[in-house]
Amino acid sequence: MLVDAPSLYFRAYFGIPESAAKTADGQPVNAVRGFLDMLAQLIRTRRPGRMVCAMDHDWRPDWRVALLPSYKAHRVAPEGGEVVPDTLTPQVPMILDVLDALGITVVGAPGYEADDVLGTLSVTQPGPVEVVSGDRDLFQLIDDARGVRLLYIGRGVAKLDDCDDAAVRARYGVPADRYAEFAALRGDPSDGLPGVAGVGEKTAARLVDRYGDIAGILAALEDPASGFAPGLRTKLAAARDYLAVAPKVVRVALDVPLPPLPTELPVAPADPDRLLDLAERWNLAGSTRRLVDALSTRTPAS
Known about the structure:
Layout: E1 2-4, H1 5-15, H2 30-46, E2 52-54, H3 62-67, H4 91-102, E3 105-107, H5 114-124, E4 129-133, E5 148-152, E6 161-163, H6 165-172, H7 179-186, H8 201-211, H9 214-221, H10 230-238, H11 240-250, H12 272-281, H13 285-296
Parallel strand pairs: 1-2, 1-4, 2-3, 4-5
Antiparallel strand pairs: 5-6
Helix pairs in contact: 1-2, 2-4, 2-13, 4-12, 7-8, 7-11, 12-13
Keywords: DNA-binding, Endonuclease, Exonuclease, Hydrolase, Nuclease
GO molecular function, one term: 5'-3' exonuclease activity
Function: 5'-3' exonuclease acting preferentially on double-stranded DNA.
């Protein structure tokens, strides 16, 4: 199981009121508590033998911005860095401390997003692999032949969608390995991807189905007999420069340099005394107990 940690803790932060989860001195721990509870549910219901949590060591890599300056530009804080709620920022180190005490592997890489770490692990770790995220871009990692699936948590962990290639085709009309091309055409305001003006999901899917990829679409634009409606031809031609770079921005990196990683999910905390101390200090007794219980009931990896 490959876990998109930022996706989970952002969802936890906005899903649980701060007033419902605080330390004795009033510090919010709603993201920590929600993250741990989601992890416990995933372990209890999916029963993975191996797990890695991926982190954003660079949420807006320079190489993506160089290709497309608008990439996540609307999420840059005035002083630089990502716009993150003030009360979420101090909770991230708490999450990392608890995961370390549990013995669950966490990894990130300079110059890459968590998505890229997940993508690289999805092709380098032996299958089957379940990727857990609420990021639609990770539909592109699905690979039926290797047993790579996306557990999409757009509706929450309790209502996750277990997605294979057929699920992506049913949802978007394109195969998983063409999702990046489709997303580049459609655009994604949350990532600062403008898309092609006037091209929605249905037209994007139709173009990908007919021409295979962006390169095929751009090549067809050079052919007067390619059959584009005049209006669509004009829209695509106007977006030619964007289309030349957008798929590279959307495409998840599969070659991030990562060190050898221990991936076996423990059946008991690596440092139970430290975990107990953290749980007491941050008022996380219930969440840590549920997570430890989930670990204790799973079968060790062979």
